[in-house]
Specification:
The structure holds two protein chains of two kinds. By secondary structure, chain A is mainly beta. Chain A has no helices and nine strands. Chain A is globular and about 35 Å long. Classes of the chains: A mainly beta, B alpha+beta.
Chain lengths: ~130, ~80
């Protein structure tokens, strides 16, 4: 134990308010060295925080088999190379993929995405595995 | 600032809980100048939100279940899978 110094709270970041109800913590983006987020077969609900894809060192997101929903939005350009969100309840278009210029694998099966596969996917020259139904 | 953060009506339950824990219950020798103040605070919130069934412990956050660090004690991965249990 140590005597607490109130200045400790000055070290904390301003509160982040995303206004959304989600089990995926918006604070993830504060872990600036994060390379991998792998949370499979959980029971997470809600949509993904817009800032979670743009952590600079992030390479791998695997949220396979949860109950996540909503449209996916990316706040800028993501360095993620592998995205696995099979078996969730995401909806909307998959145009968000164009915000992942380095992506090599995108596993999007068994969601509720709609619309067409965007032609701009052809610009993703590193994309080798793409599952989408 | 402290009162605002602890009593602020807009803060989430997890934020209040984690602040209370860090300030009054955590036995890790966290100093205001420590490199890992923000990381520990953030990891504690993430842990409470992602793994609500787990209680926070006073070891370094790099040793918490689900968190993986590099040699500089920086969190580089969060892993949890019911496949492995």
């Amino acid at each position: 134990m140590f005597p607490f110094n109130k200045t400790l709270t000055n070290c904390f970041p301003p509160r982040i308010l995303d206004g959304l109800s989600s089990d995926v913590p918006v604070e993830l983006s504060l872990l600036e060295h994060l390379e991998e987020i792998i949370i499979q077969k959980g029971s997470m609900k809600g949509s993904l925080p817009i800032n979670m894809f743009t952590v600079p060192s992030l390479k791998h997101i695997d949220l396979d088999k949860n109950e996540l929903s909503g449209i996916i939005e990316v706040d800028g350009e993501s360095s993620v190379q592998r995205l696995d969100i099979n078996f969730n309840k995401f909806s909307g278009s998959i145009d968000f993929l164009t915000s992942f210029p380095n992506i090599t694998e995108a596993h999007l099966d068994n969601n509720s995405f709609n619309g067409t596969i965007p032609a701009s996917l052809g610009d993703l020259t590193n994309l080798r595995k793409f599952n989408f139904d | 600032m402290l009162m605002h953060m602890v009593l602020g009506t807009k803060s989430s339950g997890e934020e209040n809980e984690v602040l209370d824990w860090l300030l009054f219950h955590d036995e890790y020798n966290l100093c205001p100048q420590a490199d890992n103040v923000l990381q520990r605070y953030t990891a504690a919130i993430v842990s409470r939100k992602l793994f609500p069934e787990r209680t926070l412990n006073s070891d370094h956050e790099c040793s918490w279940l689900g968190f993986i660090c590099n040699s500089k004690s920086q969190i580089i991965a969060i892993k949890h899978s019911k496949y492995n249990i």
